Amino acid sequence: MPRPSRRWRAGAAAGVLTLILAACGSSDGGSGGGGGRPYTIGLSNGFVGSEWRTQMVEGLQAAFAEYQKQGAVDELVVESADTDVNGQIQQIRNLINRDVDAIIVNPNSETALDAVFREAEQQGIQVFAIDQAVTSKDVTNVVIDQAEWARISAKWLAGQVGEGGDIVVVNGIAGHPANEMRWNAAKQVFADAKVNVLSVADGNWDQATGQQVMTNLLATYPDVDGVWTQDGMAEGVFRAVQAADRLKQIKISGEARVGFMRLWNQARADGFESIGVVNPPGGAVSALHMAVNALDGKTFAGGKINGNTVTIPIPYTVDQANFEQHWGAAGGESDAYSLDGSLTPEQAAEYFQ
Amino acid sequence: MNVLREIRLPGVQLSGTATVAMLVAAVVVNSALQPNFWSAYALTSNFATFVPLVAIAVGQTIVVLSGGIDLSLGAQVTLSAVAAVQLLDGRLDRLPLAVAAALGVGLACGALNGLVVALLRLQPIVATFATSFVFSGLALVVLPTPGGSVPIEVTTVYRDAVLGVPVALLAILGLALLWWVLRRHRVLRHVYAVGGDPEAAYASLVPVARTRVLAYVLGGLFAALAALAVLANTGSGDPFVGNELTLASVAAVVLGGTALAGGRGGAGGSILGAIVLALVTNIVFFADVPTTYRQLVNGAVIILALALAGIPALQKRRPAA
Amino acid sequence: MSTLLEMTGVRKRYGGVQALDGADLTAVGGEVHALLGPNGSGKSTLDKTLAGTVVPDSGEIRIDGEAARIGGPRDAHALGVAAVHQQLSIVGDLTVTQNVVLGLEPVRRWGFLDHRAARDRAAAALERFAAAFSGRLPLDRPAGTLGPGEQQIVEVAKALAREPRVLVLDEATASLHKEQVEVLFEVVRELRAAGVLVLFTSHRLDEVFALCDRATVLRNGRTVGTVELAATGEDELVRLMVGDLPHPADLAVAPPPAGAGAAVLEVRGLTTDRLRDVSFTVRGGEVLGLGGLQGQGQSELLLALFGAARITAGEALLDGEPLPLTSPARAARAGIALVPGDRGRQGMFASRPIQENLSLASMHRRALGRFALRASSERRAARTMVDRLQIKLGSPADPVSTLSGGNQQKVVIGKWLLDQPRVVLLDDPTKGVDVGAKEEIYAIVRALADDGAIVVLNSSDNRELAELSDRVLVLFEGAVAEELAAAAVTENRLVSSALRLAPGESL
Amino acid sequence: MSAPTVEAPRRVLSWRPGPVALAGAIAVALVIAGELVSPGFAGYGQLVNLMRVAAFLGVIAIGQTIVIIAGGGGVDLSVGKVATFAAIIGSRVMAGDDGDLVPAVALALAVAAAIGLVNGLGVTLLRIPPFVMTLGMIGVVQGLILAYTGGQASGRAAPALTSLVNGRLIFDLPGLLFLWAALGLLAVWLLRRTTFGWNLFAVGANRTAAELSGVRADRTLIVAYVLSATFAGLGGILLLGYTESVFLDLADQYMLPSVAAVVIGGTMLAGGIGGYAGTAVGAIVLTVLQGLLTTLDIGGAGRTVVNGVVLLVLLSLYGRQRRLRS
Questions:
Q1: Which of chain A's residues have a Cβ under 8 Å away from the Cβ of B285?
Q2: Domains observed in chain C
Q3: Transmembrane stretches, by residue range (chain B) (predicted)?
Q4: Which of A145, A341, B157, C132 is most buried, taking the most CB atoms under 10 A from its CB?
Q5: Which of C308, C402, C437 comes nearest D6 by C-beta?
């Protein structure tokens, strides 16, 4: 095809777009929220390659249905896809363009969404970040304390291996904020307890990678006393240790997911012990309660909010003592199911004046 | 015409008409589904989202035109962005320095790729896959955790409009202009020649290796521009920010009518292709496709678009007995 | 007149083929110097060493008496050498203007292109050839959309735009019409008057005599002599080129086949975009030659019979059964074999072992369930062919590219013999093959016909046609122009058909 | 008359290591380096473990090898996603029950093959460049996964599959290694001892010549993509046996490493040259490298950079393209 005509078409397309834009540019911006009940709520989730996220979305939808019955809300707009920061910015902008009143976001970045959050704020939309706190002041973080979450299992492990014990660590993704927050807290715990951290490797929060990484670590450090790992990888770490036939010698910090608990349950007969700190997908539900209260015009009570972060409690921890009870309740779920917990509407209301 | 042309493997290439038609269709469908598509906010915000992909698609186009491919462009975006944001540190007066740093990093990354592909003659797909590790690792060294901030003036201006025209649209037009200027430069002419027929280009005194290097360097330059757009769009640094742009840029290039075999096409189409890609995501959202089916629809649309381009090839095949 | 160009002892080896084996050439400015020799004698390689696209293994090149080191096209350009090779250096997606100035684009400041200057330069270069184009000069058209003749002219204009002192024209007239040839010759004569040395390579002896002053003849990569053309007869020149091989008249021509009972290939009105209404009949045991100037549709006819070209009309019948002309795979299953003209691009798998090259077309016959190969039977099959065709090789596991040209060609032929085809289509089977292997290939072709196969042979070598064919169809512009019966098939008759008569004149 | 220039092909006098030998030497060197850096790395148990990890990449890269040998820019970027999908289907259908193992594997492989068929048809009939076709297919398969699972993978590996993969057989070697060896032999047989394999090399080495030799090139290419997806699916099933439970991005990360393993093993991306033995060694090299980097305590950033640099070095050994000038 002769080149000039193609260039002409490209130019024409760009020209037409520009003209239309110039013509429409003067019209008013999106109206955004600000209306009364019923509210439209948006959810932006930038990663779907994990069941935890699915559980999060489904839990939110269920809680939302309750509010719908009460007539408090009318529509939940879900933006959920595998995407990067740029894609999530587009997600949030789409939600803004849908005139939602509030956005619940599980952010892909601690910082990189700041600008779009400001856009939302300027349109009068309230934004709640879950799972991972963000730096933006235009957002209310509704999160568990990741540092505390890490400390619980780290303390347990430190107690198990004792002073002078040697451990290895299988972390998530280096540079990821949640990873850093958790690891910094756990590192401090181990330092205080005089536990030696022999090696730190990344398992990308991926069970298969975690299993392979742990296998490699075991080769080099066959005599470690324990391994500390984050959620999503405990099953892989367990299998690696099991394959090396060292379950009796090596203590593993576990997780509150059915898959791991099944392994735990099977090994319990041999004296295996572990711990599972719940990282609740239900944080989204807690955030929804907060959002409805906030949209109703309430403000957070003093002391309940630190800066712009509302810390919700870690629901519970599965340990040797209460294992039977939790296993009995959740054992029927699929392996990927995370033990969950969320604030009740009443509990959430207590955060407000 | 050589009879054997018919059984040789042609590279599929979308015609310019097809790309423009896709863009028009995407705009029409999107504005039908999205009531406030034409509002100032929707337009500014949409264009603000497009710029990074558009910029990286232009860079990818140049590399593809030269007969290569660069799978490290996304990592280059990340590295340029974190280098710039570290220098910026939220201060407006450091902006020129940061821009220079981003461009410098982009050019250096491009030069490394060019060196590896043109001089060491490694196969571009795997070589740039390998360098992408180097770049993203360095990004983590420069900025171990998300942070750094871009002056608020930058992010504000980026999402503003001048005389009703969004600044982000101006940025896209600026990228198009830059491409237009490059097209008038000897280097781009040589890029086309080398991608179209390296042997003929070599015999015609075109410095083939140097041209290939320059194509990757230009790719790095546009990656740096994409990084600046990412910073203006996000307002802060993140050591993972650009990585997923790479494959999208290849898709945009092909949707824009550039042959992956090299030598044919242009960045004008890739710019439109990038916008089409982004609009498809919007359409799927505003069409209320259930969340679980969105990626299916998204992928299917891209393949269908390419399949439409391939149908002429199907018809040109010899008639069956 | 002082010597402008002196090449001495140039040697070049590609894999197993010694393309140049001590070639010499001396030429002066202001002459048109023909470079002659049979196919595969090394003319093109010598041209390429001068243009810098091939770096010789050894040898010396002097220009104006100064030793020249030509390591690449840029060196050649700096020395004032420009070349037009058989394989054009046209980039199809660039416009004619862009192609003419490619590599030497006129630029303004900072390397920005000066479109007007480029256009002017291209227009000036093409202006001299204006008569060769139908209509206006196609300056802004993508070069790939031009016809082959026009592309060739653009290539020459591009070389001229480089203002060379030495211009190499390698088969530059092969795809030109008569009028275009005239235009080109006029330009070459102007160049000669201006003191430029033109090295001219062509298969058309009439062109050589019409244009050139002197001729250097190559054979098997070696210079056998330089002659003043004005003082040389055509026979003498031909003898220099082909050497002292036995004259075809001395060879016994195979008797016409018995006919009755043998297979019959009947082609009726075959038409493609390069063939016009071709009809003929061949019988088993017969060798049908395709003659005429090269590029008149001979290769296309063979490809069409093999299902590799799109047929717009006509059909072919083998023993009365219509042949499937829709795909090479079907044609092969129907018992047809093609030894294609471009061995490297169409015939062999350079990087694959000899064994696989030989087995490929017939292995399904030996495979269990047409799928599982037995190493032993494949090896045995290959061994049979290696012995039968006397292929000289190290190991059947070596890549076929390690063989000499003649042995490569034997592998390509052997691939089909293993499939026991009823019709064998040979497209210039001895191109680039040395003399000894040539004779062996002739023997193979004769043996095939003796075994009752139908053989259709295209050859750019008229001696070969004369030696092998029972009948020859002379093709011109895709149509059968003349049929020479067995008795009339002599080299002289063919040469007069193909060489002496200018295209377009009736025979 | 001059003597004919026919001569016997030159035998290569100086022995130059083939890509397989070279890659093998690198693997050994990496193991030795690992042993020096962290004693125990070269222990029998660890070597077995490394081999076991390499097996998944090795199986997935079988298909990748086939597609790349087929030439024409052939590459299958969808192998990771297809492997994930196969594991998800397998897991849901077998649901931890040995009785459903066979139908589960059959269904998973059939779906994978169907995806490969679509890839092959797109690449041959519609002439979509393989890179983009299989890239687009990633999105489609991810969509299918989400649609099929609703975002919540379910089921579990059947115990028989787990014991097949993880169970120790002779020499304390896990069953997985025997499976890999069997599949590897199958791949080598397919490439070297079947008409399909020889056609495949022919198409990759010279597509025009292949067509003119009566090879049905399009059909061969389609089969190549079907096989690629099928082996990817098989890799996913084996991974399921290893992890016992699935998740939504189980095998995604194998996409580009599978290409790298093929190239490090000496198979040319241009097509027509190579084989599976090299790929298998390439998979081992990459895995040993990962293992070595894990045991080196140099932090995530440093590991990533070193990984890239080592990859470049490996590629420069055999992944080079030809020169323009002769």
A1: 79, 91, 94
A2: 3-242 (3.40.50.300), 245-335+423-429+459-507 (3.40.50.300)
A3: 12-32, 38-59, 71-88, 94-118, 125-143, 163-182, 213-233, 245-262, 269-287, 293-314
A4: C132
A5: C437
Overall domain count for chain A: 2
Please indicate, yes or no, if residue D23 is contained in any of the structural domains.
no
Instruction: Compute the half-sphere exposure of residue A40: CA atoms within 13 Å on the CB side of its CA.
Output: 16
SS3 content of chain B, % helix, strand, coil (to 5): 75, 5, 25
Comparing C-alpha atoms, which of D194, A276, A298, D292 is closest to residue C378?
A: D194
* A215, A220, A235: residue with CB nearest D38: A220
Q: For residue D169, which amino acid is it?
A: L
ipTM of the complex: 0.80
Residue D97: which domain range?
A: 30-316
* β-bridge mates for residue C62, sequence order: C6, C67
- DSSP run (H or E) holding D113: helix D101-124
Do A233 and A252 sit in the same domain of this protein?
yes
List Cα–Cα distances, C32 to B183, C29, C183, in angstroms: 41, 9, 16
Considering A78-82, B293-297, D178-182, the range whose residues carry the highest mean pLDDT is D178-182
CB pair distance less than 8 Å for C333 and D326: no
Q: Is residue C56 exposed (0-12), middle (13-18) or buried (19+ Cβ within 10 Å)?
A: buried
User: Is there a domain that residue D123 lies in?
Assistant: yes
Q: What share of chain A is helix, strand, coil (3-state, %, to 5)?
A: 45, 15, 40
Query: Is B180 within 8 Å of chain C by CB?
Result: no
One domain for residues A14 and A115:
yes
User: Domain total for chain D?
Assistant: 1
- Which residues in chain B (136-155) have CB-CB distances under 8 A to chain A? 140, 143-149, 155
Q: In 3D, which of A34, A60, A57 has the Cα closest to residue A47?
A: A57
Measuring CA to CA, which residue among A113, A239, A99, A224 is closest to residue A168? A224
Assigned domain for A336 exists: no
A118 and A187 assigned to the same domain: no
Domain, as residue range, for A295: 6-143+281-312
Under 8 Å between Cβ of D305 and D298: no
C502: three-class secondary structure by DSSP: coil
> Quick check: D150 and A55 in contact, CB under 8 A?
no
Same structural domain for residues A83 and A208? no
Domain containing residue A181: CATH number: 3.40.50.2300
Interface of B with D in 120-149 (CB under 8 A): 120-123, 125-127, 129-141, 144
Q: Which residues pair with C201 in a beta bridge?
A: C170
Q: Using one digit for the tens of pLDDT, what is the confidence trace for C199-237?
A: 998 877 788 898 999 999 988 888 988 999 888 887 788
Q: Map out the domains of chain B as residue ranges.
A: 38-317
Could you name the CATH architecture of B38-317?
Orthogonal Bundle (1.10)
DSSP state letter for D94: H
The confidence score (pLDDT) of residue C198 equals 94
How many helices and strands in chain A, by DSSP H and E? 12, 12
pLDDT single digits (tens) C371-425: 888 888 999 999 999 998 888 888 888 888 888 778 888 999 999 999 889 999 9
User: What CATH code is carried by the domain that includes residue D168?
Assistant: 1.10.3470
Taking 3-state DSSP, the helix, strand and coil percentages for chain C, each rounded to the nearest 5, stand at: 35, 25, 40
Candidate from B4, B203, B207 with C-beta closest to C53:
B203
Is position D326 within any domain? no
At B51-97, the pLDDT tens digits run 999 999 999 999 999 999 999 999 999 999 999 999 988 888 999 99
pTM comes to 0.83
Asked if D135 and B127 come within 8 Å (Cβ–Cβ), the reply is no
